[in-house]
Amino acid sequence: MKNPIASPWVKSFVKALAGNEVTGAPSHTKIWASVACATATWKFIHIPEPSVDIWMAYLGLVGGYALGRRWIAAKQDVETKKIEGTNNEE
After folding, report:
1. What is this structure's pTM?
2. Mean pLDDT rounded to a whole number for the chain
3. Is 70 exposed, middle or buried (0-12, 13-18, 19+ CB in 10 A)?
4. Reduced to 3 states, what is the DSSP secondary structure of residue 81?
């Protein structure tokens, strides 16, 4: 019988939540950010009828994290390309 924890899907999911995409090493920052988002989601689900303020706080936390993460990754990509000399200017 196959071990479900060793499946490629589970490994890629864990890497997406807690690993560095480039090196594959665990990322302390990414682990805690995922814990924070999961905790906020858990709490949000268990509020009987969330008010508009709760909705805004939840969406701000999760959406802000996702936006910030993409912005940082884009800046790192630009810096990496500058260092490697592979910018698109020709």
Report:
1. 0.53
2. 77
3. exposed
4. helix
* R_g of the chain, CA atoms, integer Å: 18
Which structure tokens are listed for 23? 């090196």
Please answer whether residues 19 and 30 qualify as being in contact, where contact means their C-beta atoms are separated by less than 8 angstroms: yes
Looking up tokens 């884009």 gives 74
pLDDT tens digits for 32-64?
A: 878 888 888 888 888 888 888 988 888 888 888
3-state DSSP call for residue 80? helix
Residue whose tokens read 């890497």: 15
Cα 22 to Cα 60: distance, rounded to the nearest angstrom: 27
